[in-house]
UniProtKB/TrEMBL annotation:
PANTHER family: ALKALINE PHOSPHATASE LIKE PROTEIN (PTHR42709), UNDECAPRENYL PHOSPHATE TRANSPORTER A (PTHR42709:SF6). This is DedA family protein. The chain crosses the membrane at residues 15-46, 53-74, 109-134, 141-162, 174-193. It comes from Streptomyces javensis. Residues 32-161 form the VTT domain.
Amino acid sequence: MHIEEWLETVPAVSVYLLVGIVIGLESLGIPLPGEIVLVSATLLAASQDHINPYILGTCAVAGAVIGDSIGYLIGRKGGQPLLAWLGRKFPKHFSAEHVATAERSFQKWGMWAVFVGRFIALLRIFAGPLAGVLRMPYWKFLIANVLGGIVWAGGTTAVIYSLGKVAEDWLKRFSWLGLVLALLFGLGSMLVMKWRSKKAKAAAVTAADSETAEPEPVPAGD
């Protein structure tokens, strides 16, 4: 069976559910490739008429908003011990350096950190739980959460679907193109996360060295 014929047999509802669940779990605080799944599903919708991009975008937005809200409630109840537990379970994503970077973003930008964090791989995982831990007023969190979910999930779906339609002939000839684009998105997100992690770690080491450095002795007067 040709891959195009096989893709036509993929139930649309399974694609909608996969996108909503993966993005929801990522927003809740579980490190999953939500952006890669969304991009891949949108490229699939661009080449398969039975997958509705409007329903796909709606499921993505719903997963983002609901997942972030659940993460907020968990973070508000769990507090700092929750971050410590996550650091032990997922040291690559919830290390002390990553938590410190996210906390500085929240202290500097407040509710805008929730909105902007939707577009950054590291903050996308932290936004909900950390907002709860830091006891951000829920109404502020909800506004930023809903707006961020609509702009990120809805905007990503619209842009990728439009690009996919423009390149529809290529997608039909080369069914692997969607996978290549998704992998490029994922690689870019991973490199950005590693760069931010190294930068945060270097800043933390510098701060620790400055705190532990002993003051130079003051010469005794004559």
